[in-house]
Write a structure and sequence with these properties.
CATH architecture: 2-Layer Sandwich
Strand order of the largest sheet: 3-2-1-4-5
Number of helices: 4
CATH class: Alpha Beta
Shape: globular
Distance between the termini: 13 Å
CATH topology: Nonspecific Lipid-transfer Protein, Chain A
Helix content: 25-40%
Largest sheet: 5 strands, mixed
CATH superfamily: SCP2 sterol-binding domain
Number of domains: 1
Length: 101
Amino acid sequence: MADLASVTEHIRGAVGENSGLGKTVKIDLGDTGKIFIDGASVPNSVSNDDKPADATVSISWDDFIALSEGKLDPMMAFMQGKLKIAGDMMIAQKLAPLLKR
């Protein structure tokens, strides 16, 4: 079973030094914690800091895992209110490929 540390490490690997995001994104996993992707810095960085971001994606841990495993469609999750996006919607769309496992 994945935990926040292993998921953060996976995203760090997927983001690499230059994700092409050019912005900051926070994934808010509720009580489980946060994943902050700084796609604006060089090199890009990924941490568990709770900092302001250009876009914030809010999703429950279970839905996040289902999404990363391809069991939950991001658009359906958004339509059903399981996935909420505050801020720049375009960044959130660029994020999807980085979350796949």
